[in-house]
Amino acid sequence: MNREELIRQVWEEQHRQHGLIRRKRRGDGERPPAHQEHLLHILKRHPLINQKDLAEKVHVRPQSLGEMLGKMEEGGLILRKKDPADGRATHVEMTPAGEALEREHHEKVFREIKARYSALTDDELTEYLRLTRIINETLEQE
Fold first, then answer.
1. Which residues contact 39 (CB under 8 A, 6 or more apart)?
2. Which CATH number is 124's domain given?
3. Spatial separation of the C-alpha atoms in residues 36 and 98, rounded to whole Å
4. Do 81 and 93 meet the contact criterion of CB atoms below 8 Å apart?
5. H-type helices in 46-121, by residue range?
6. How many domains does the chain have?
7. What is the domain range of residue 131?
């Protein structure tokens, strides 16, 4: 595996870890913020996701997500469509404008993370990835 792919995997694992930590904090009464960029990142990984499932992935109540998605829809970043098989369900998908914003944000963050890990060798980064995965598995089991 080349260094960039290794860094991408570390980033994905950290992203998952941060979500798991936010979920634990929410149980303590702290509600984590869900930013548009985070929502777009999830939509990139899960195109045409059900709105209920999206709320679960970003660790917010469906009602709160509905408000955020309304603003994003007004801004032309997403579309919401009724599921033809289940009229109660709504699917969310990115528009080309949403995809462009997600790509721009992704590239910016990846450059920052690449710089953050520049002090580590490939072996150290591989070990960090292994350890991060162990931490995430522990958090998921709690």
1. 54, 58, 68, 69, 72, 78
2. 1.10.10.10
3. 9
4. yes
5. 51-58, 62-74, 96-116
6. 1
7. 29-141
pLDDT tens string, the chain, 142 residues long: the values are 899 999 899 989 888 888 876 776 566 554 434 478 889 989 999 988 888 888 888 888 888 888 889 999 999 999 998 878 877 888 899 999 999 999 988 898 888 889 888 989 999 999 999 999 999 898 888 7
Return d(Cα 9, Cα 27) in angstroms, integer: 28
Q: Determine, yes or no, domain membership for 22.
A: no
Q: How far is CA 108 from the centre of its chain?
A: 15
Threshold 0.90, pTM exceeds = no
Domain-located, residue 135: yes
CA distance 113 to 14: 11
For residue 5, being part of any structural domain is answered with: no
**Residue 51 belongs to a domain:** yes
